[in-house]
Amino acid sequence: MWGPGPEFGPPGHFFTKSVHGPGDVGFGRRRRMRRGDVRAAILLLLGEEPRNGYQVMQELEQRSEGAWRPSPGSVYPALQLLADEGLIRGESREGGTVYELTETGRAHLDEHRERFGEPWQQANEGVPDDVRELMHLAMQVGVATRQVTHAGSEEQRKAAAELLTDTRRKLYGILAED
After folding, report:
1. Cβ–Cβ contacts within 10 Å for residue 105, how many?
2. How far apart are CA 168 and CA 176, in angstroms?
3. pLDDT (tens digit, 9 = 90+) per residue, 24-80?
4. 3-state DSSP of 62-79
5. pLDDT digits over 150-168, tens only?
6. Alpha-carbon gap, residue 40 to 73, rounded angstroms
7. How would DSSP label each residue in the chain?
8. At a CB cut-off of 8 Å and minimum separation 6, what does 77 contact?
9. pTM
10. Closest Cα to residue 14, out of 26, 31, 2?
């Protein structure tokens, strides 16, 4: 979670005015979605194609442009509950469980699709374009970092670690300029 406390706005607000003064803006906490939103989002994503829990979390973060990153503590219990209700089924594949809609789940989704809307868009509402762009860039850096981690030599990984350490210091330096 971002932001130390209530001075960053009410729960659920990703972006609010900061405590520095009028016109200053800063990051608040990531948007906290309602439990029903997680369920609806899972059903909508599984309506497109089967996915595992990690893929669901990644897709929601990507579609919300970083504004909503559901935790395993919200996604996996929702998957289990949907399975218990007979709306989805899980199948063990390649060391994980891949979930897909059942016929009952598909009918439920069709019946409620309009009401569900696009929960990932709700997470993005009210987030200024520059914040959205910054989060998108941070996600791209994360992807590049994973590629260096998996495909880079020891020397390349060391250089990447130094670059990220320096970048982190510079980012905090920007905040310290106030």
Report:
1. 22
2. 12
3. 333 444 444 444 489 999 999 999 999 999 999 999 988 887 778 888 999 999 999
4. HHCCCCCCCCHHHHHHHH
5. 999 999 999 999 999 999 9
6. 16
7. --SSSGGG-STT-SEEE-TT-TT-EEE-PPPPPPHHHHHHHHHHHHHHS-EEHHHHHHHHHHHTTTS----HHHHHHHHHHHHHTTSEEEEEETTEEEEEE-HHHHHHHHHHHHHH--HHHHHHTT--HHHHHHHHHHHHHHHHHHHHHHH--HHHHHHHHHHHHHHHHHHHHHHHT-
8. none
9. 0.58
10. 31
The owner of tokens 């899980």 is 90
Tokens representing 176? 């310290």
